[in-house]
Amino acid sequence: MEAEHRLIETVVKALGGVAAAVELGERPAVARMATAVEFLRVYADQLHHGKEEKLFFPMLVKRGVPPQGCPIGGLNHEHEKGRALVQALAEQASVYAQGKPGAKEVLLETLRGIQDLYENHIWKEDAMVFPMADKVLTAADQTELCKKFAEVDRAIGSETIARLEQFARSLATGTGPTFQAGGSPTSGCGCGGG
Ligand SMILES: [Fe+2]
Ligand SMILES: [Fe+2]
User: Ligand 1 center to residue 121 CA distance, Å?
Assistant: First the structure.
């Protein structure tokens, strides 16, 4: 789970870099943005949040952690917020690429919202929830979770997971194509200089 956090952080941090570039008037590469959205939907949400919501959190509840409020209720609420932000990112990135007026500001707000939300969320789980889990879960609980996590991995498919992990690693090492398409959005400011 912590290894998944590191890769999610990498992608989210790269989106912070996209925000800085968009602010300067650059246009992110549409295909890379689509892969980032796919990563957030499939790897961060379906795979990672799926494990947390369907297996890890219920196991904590079974061992006496309250299902509502802090921390589980709050974390589940943040997963919902993340889903809405990623949906907004998918829509706004293509609107921005088409050079629609006002698209830059909403896209920037979403990119920064995603970075803030995920960094903060991951920090809470790493610093508070995982250490708490080590205290309340038994060795048998941990083994059972590992087995069930592997089933989630299998359901999503090892090829899909490997491809999305490779995408995240390429961002960390700077070995893959960047998000930069170069130039300003099509139609841009209308001065023809883009
Ligand atoms: Fe989470
Ligand atoms: Fe998590």
Answer: 6
> Residue 144: CB partners within 8 Å, gap ≥ 6?
59
- Print the domain residue range for 49: 2-172
Q: Is the peptide bond before 71 cis (omega within 30 degrees of 0)?
A: yes
User: Is 190 inside any structural domain?
Assistant: no
pLDDT digits (tens, 9 = 90+) for 22-68: 999 888 888 899 999 999 999 999 999 999 999 999 999 999 999 99
**Residue 185 within any structural domain of the chain:** no
d(C-alpha 5, C-alpha 48), whole Å: 8
CA 177 to each of CA 24, 38, 81, 88, 110: distance values in angstroms, whole numbers, following the listed order: 19, 16, 29, 24, 23
CATH code for the domain of 57: 1.20.120.520
Domain count, the chain: 1
User: 93 C-alpha vs ligand 1 centroid, how far in Å?
Assistant: 24
CA of 188 to the centre of ligand 2 (A): 38
